[in-house]
Specification:
Oligomer: heterodimer
Strand content of chain B: 15-25%
Order of helices and strands of chain B: HHHEHEHEHEHEEEEHHHHHEE
Helix content of chain B: 40-55%
CATH topology of the largest domain in chain B: Rossmann fold
Subunit structure (chain A): Heterodimer.
Strand order of the largest sheet of chain B: 3-2-1-4-5-6-9-10
Distance between the termini of chain B: 47 Å
Number of strands of chain B: 10
CATH superfamily of the largest domain in chain B: NAD(P)-binding Rossmann-like Domain
Number of domains of chain A: 3
Radius of gyration of chain B: 21 Å
Pathway (chain A): Protein modification; protein sumoylation
Pfam family, one (chain A): UAE_UbL
Keywords (chain A): ATP-binding, Membrane, Metal-binding, Nucleotide-binding, Nucleus, Transferase, Transmembrane, Transmembrane helix, Ubl conjugation pathway, Zinc
Number of strands of chain A: 14
Largest sheet of chain A: 8 strands, mixed
Family (chain A): Belongs to the ubiquitin-activating E1 family.
Largest sheet of chain B: 8 strands, mixed
Number of helices of chain A: 18
Chain lengths: ~650, ~325
């Protein structure tokens, strides 16, 4: 350890290193590198939390793990391996989720600094709140491919993790998935839904049959009748498959022939689109449509890199259905959980999505590429993680000496230095956002919703947990003391599917939402959605709710002016995007959200058809969402985070280098 | 499981096992780059903290072979950053003490130790390597290795960590590369990949040492150059003339000596003294782990670029400035 050799570390750093207690959250790509750096530098009391176990695909970078460790908990093995560097260090390992109630504010308070080496937004948001509650500095980090970043959140001094928008899930309208796919990803999502319908946790929002209620396809007349018809059909998909004993030929016939014919009958859909072609199982093409690319041809040795012919897909469809059926019915009849690392499940999705791509004339994808999309895999290498973990420790020296003025947000950029010749671009820490719904005093938000549809369950799961990242929320009506939702297990079960209006909640009702563990409270004012908005929402299958910012601070006049003439200087930071997800890649270049690993991320999973978290057609005011467009006058304009690029082409470069 | 022996016979082809192990990086740099990696032989000279980081990243990356070369022994200063050697290894040869743990990082890579001094090796010895990375070397050694690399078309890197600061020099000769630019899909067009080709030209290490900042054409540039570059030249001079690195046990004396050398350097080059502040010389002792990690990461990525001919390499001098908290790249070739 550096502290053991007098003179390597300057005295001020030597002192903080030997006396500080450090919490590392995550023992994956960045976590492994970080633990090594901390132990070698001479930190003496290190705690590490990780809920994950080791997989083969971790071994190319998570160097504390080796083949013989596969299947074991990351936190425990990381501790064992790091102790070899210096047996005299105290490392405490927890194989656990950091969101567990036992890691409460008093647990956090024992540390001098928290270092996040996480891979998902929910856990990051949670740790952010715990650090705010415990008034602890948090060093946040992320990496993806060759890129990474490191920053510091310190209560009252700099912005918290939730002060800026974080890119959310890409979502796709239900109609696109069920009726009119146009990209491989649409077919992959459909295939995952089909998996769940047949073998997994059947989710009514993941219907795979043609959606006859598609507003594009029909007029209003007869809509209700058709809806109820598809309702019936949906419920029976699995039963139907079971009654056929999962006869793969009949399944194939339904999904890739009958259902497609039905879609063709909705002729309005195909006026401007290329119509799909139903497949005849006895006459499948065995040539590969678009495998002429040199890369694909050159890598034929690897089965994963090759694009399968449709005949091959059918064969794998059959095999995987047989295998999955045995797993599903043979075991304890538990629903199967789709997992990209399960060969049968992955083969099923690859085969199904490719057949569907073929039916709709969409470019087919190799299993390798399908896996990336279906499992939301973020490429990762040891060297970027090493750089990021090094920068975390360098940042910690300033944090622990409380020299916050020296701390910068650092961006490990795209392999080339920027105009200032910095290989890691620097940016001053931004001040806290006075409108932040997390770190400001007494946070408030408005919730615009279709009260005819808003249930307590949607409020809990979609609003409080998924959007506001609470873990175990309690909700009561302000002033009345009525408990609407309790975090105690079972206490709210009976009423969870009731509408809010059943509890006399109307336009203007204020709800006090509280997460005891996070020591976080927010007051939400209900705003009834206008009738025409409701109509819109129903037709387009868009969100039935929208988080609209702090109503007590709304300043309509300023907003309107601003909306009319967006400031050019903010155009990169707050660009409006009409299409969800794909349009706005400049932000993705720099604000790297999700890190190294994929393993429990479901980024490209569409949310259900009615409730979309990413309703970009009507950007919410005040409450800043990833792709919203309207800058609000009294929100401090955030500096654009796009790195100045020396090469104009560079800005086009994306996170993922395509292999095909 | 593919063994090292199997690997040697399967040049250029990826096995299913390798595809599974390298999955996450294949998704980053592609199958072709990985193929070039598994055919390349890397020589790492110097097994201090930086050498250990380089060995880790390069071995994990999946090359054909790595040779660890060092004629010095493990010292207690190595404990600050050298994670491949055990604490009982003090006094043993650094390359030999590192090789066992280095091999464990990736059983598909052949890893050897060589306890000789590069000065004692015949030129022919180096011809076998695709890449030479020289750490903990003197200016004289870097010059000599750079010359051999140039003649034999070997990609060459020199790098080092001095306490909280570090550098990387690279000379890839006339280096051709391809870079893929992925355009995002739009409403009308699907995502597409465009490949651009380019050539980077490098200056040999000799040219850097000969830089005279007092010349008209350079004095202007000196003003815009990060001071850590000047501090680096002062440090390299110190090591060359004293025939040792700054010593943590002589912290105060070495610091003063470095300041004197800095004064002489800026005067000789017509640079103002304020341009190269004292604090650049306060923490140049030993090698601390985070700076080894940062520098090792940067150099390893450049090694991958050099071998794969994919992406634009850094040209041609990188320094980490601990006072600013970031790294800078300066092109001395143009």
């Amino acid at each position: 350890m550096a502290t053991e050799v007098e003179g390597v570390l300057p005295k001020s750093i030597h002192e903080v290193v030997t006396t500080s207690k450090v919490l590392v959250v995550g023992a994956g790509g960045i976590g492994c590198e970080l633990l090594k750096n901390l132990v070698l530098t001479g930190f003496k009391d290190i705690h590490v939390v990780d809920l994950d176990t080791i997989e083969v695909s971790n071994l190319n970078r998570q160097f504390l793990f080796r083949k013989e460790h596969v299947g074991r908990p990351k936190a425990i093995v990381a501790k064992e391996s790091a102790l070899v560097f210096n047996p005299n260090v105290n490392i405490t390992a927890y194989h656990d989720s950091i969101t567990e109630a036992k890691y409460d504010v008093s647990f956090f308070k024992q540390f001098s600094v928290v270092m996040n080496a996480l891979d998902n937004l929910a856990a990051r948001s949670h740790v952010n709140r715990m650090c705010l509650a415990a008034d602890l500095p948090l060093i946040e980090s992320a990496s993806a491919g060759f890129k990474g970043n490191v920053t510091c959140h310190k209560k009252g001094l700099s912005e918290c993790y939730n002060c800026t928008d974080r890119p959310r899930q890409k979502t796709f309208p239900g109609c696109t998935i069920r009726n009119t796919p146009s990209e491989p990803i649409h077919c992959i999502v459909w295939a995952k839904h089909l998996f769940n319908q047949l073998f997994g946790l059947a989710d009514e929002d993941q219907d795979v049959s043609p959606d006859s209620a598609d507003p594009e396809a029909i007029g209003d007349a007869g809509k209700a009748a058709l809806e109820s018809q598809s309702e019936k059909e949906r419920i029976s998909t699995r039963e139907w498959a079971r009654s056929l004993d999962y006869d793969s030929k009949k399944l194939f016939q339904k999904f890739f022939h009958d259902d497609i014919k039905y879609l063709l009958s909705m002729s309005n859909l195909w006026v401007t689109r290329r119509a799909p072609t139903p497949l005849d199982i006895d006459d499948l093409p065995d040539a590969v449509a678009s495998s002429s690319s040199a890369a694909a041809a050159a890598s034929t040795v690897l089965k994963d890199q090759r694009i399968w012919s449709i005949a091959e897909c059918e064969e794998i469809f059959r095999e995987s259905i047989n295998g999955l059926q045995k797993e599903f019915l043979g075991g304890n009849a538990e629903p199967l959980i789709w997992d990209k690392d399960d060969d049968l499940a992955m083969n099923f999705v690859t085969a199904c999505s490719n057949i569907r791509c073929h039916v709709f004339g969409i470019q087919q994808k190799s299993r390798f590429d399908t896996k990336a999309m279906a499992g939301n895999i973020i490429p990762a290498i040891a060297s970027t993680n090493a750089i990021v973990a090094g920068l975390i420790v360098m940042t910690s020296f300033n944090v622990l000496r409380q020299q916050y003025d020296k701390i910068r947000t650092l961006y490990v950029s795209d392999r080339e230095a920027n105009r200032r010749k910095e290989l890691f671009a620097m940016e001053r820490l931004a001040p806290p956002n006075p409108k932040c719904y997390v770190c400001r005093d007494k946070p408030e938000l408005g919730l615009k919703a279709d009260l005819d549809k808003l249930t307590i369950r949607i409020l809990k799961e979609k609003v409080l947990q998924n959007t506001l990242n609470m873990i175990a929320p309690d909700v009561e009506l302000e002033g009345k003391g009525t408990i609407l939702l309790s975090s105690e297990e079972g206490e709210s079960d009976e009423i969870i599917d009731k509408l809010l209006t059943d509890f006399a909640i109307v336009n203007g009702t204020r709800l006090v939402c509280d997460d005891f563990l996070q020591n976080y409270q927010i007051t939400i004012t209900i705003v009834e959605m206008k009738e025409e908005d409701k109509e819109n929402v129903r037709n387009k299958e868009e969100t039935i709710f929208e988080v609209v910012g702090d109503l007590t601070q709304l300043n309509p006049k300023a907003e309107e002016t601003n909306a009319a003439s967006p400031k050019p200087s903010t155009s990169n930071g707050n660009k409006q995007s009409a299409s969800v997800g794909n349009g706005d890649n400049e932000d993705e270049l720099c604000i790297i959200e999700e890190t190294k690993d994929d393993d429990y991320l479901e980024l490209i999973e569409p949310t259900d058809e009615n409730v979309s978290l990413m309703d970009t057609s009507t950007p919410p005011k005040n409450f800043k969402r990833p792709y919203e467009g309207t800058p609000v006058a009294n929100v401090p304009v955030k500096k654009r985070r796009v790195l100045p690029a020396p090469d104009p082409n560079n800005t086009l470069d994306s996170d993922v280098v395509q292999i095909d | 499981m593919v063994t090292v022996e199997d690997r040697q016979e399967r040049d250029g082809l990826l096995t299913e096992d390798e595809a599974a192990l390298y999955d996450r990086q294949l998704r980053l740099w592609g199958v072709d780059a990985q193929r070039r990696l598994i055919s390349s032989r890397i020589l790492i000279i110097g097994l201090g903290g930086l050498g250990a980081e380089l060995a880790k990243n390069i071995i994990l990356g999946g090359v054909k072979s790595v040779t660890l070369m060092d004629d010095s022994v493990v010292t207690e200063v190595d404990a600050a950053s050298q994670f491949l050697v055990s604490r009982e290894a003090v006094g043993k040869n650094r390359a030999e003490a590192s090789v066992v743990n280095a091999r464990k990082l990736n059983p598909m890579v052949k890893v050897d130790a060589d306890s000789s001094n590069p000065d004692d090796k015949p030129e022919k010895f180096f011809e076998d390597f695709s890449v030479i990375v020289a750490t903990n070397c003197t200016k004289k050694q870097i010059l000599s290795l750079n010359r051999i690399a140039r003649i034999n078309n070997i990609k060459f890197f020199a790098a080092d960590v001095f306490g909280f600061t570090s550098f990387m020099f690279s000379d890839l000769g006339e280096h051709q590369y391809r870079k893929e630019i992925v355009t995002q899909s739009t409403k009308t067009l699907p995502e597409s990949t465009k490949v651009i080709e380019g050539v980077s030209r490098f200056a040999p290490f000799q040219d850097l040492l000969n830089l005279d900042w007092s010349l008209d054409e350079l004095s202007k540039r000196a003003k815009k150059t990060n001071p850590a570059f000047f501090a680096l030249f002062v440090l390299l001079d110190f090591i060359e003339e004293k025939n040792r690195r700054p010593d943590p046990f002589k912290r105060e004396a070495d610091y003063l000596e470095l300041l004197n050398r800095r004064d002489a350097y800026v005067e000789r080059h017509g640079i103002s003294k304020e341009k190269v502040p004292d604090e650049l010389f306060t923490d140049v002792f030993g090698a601390i782990a985070p700076v080894c990690a940062i520098t090792g990461g940067v150099v390893s990525q450049e090694v991958v670029k050099a071998v794969s001919h994919k992406d634009v390499p850094l040209v041609n001098l990188f320094v980490y400035n601990p006072v600013d908290g970031t790294g800078y790249v300066e092109d001395f070739a143009g």
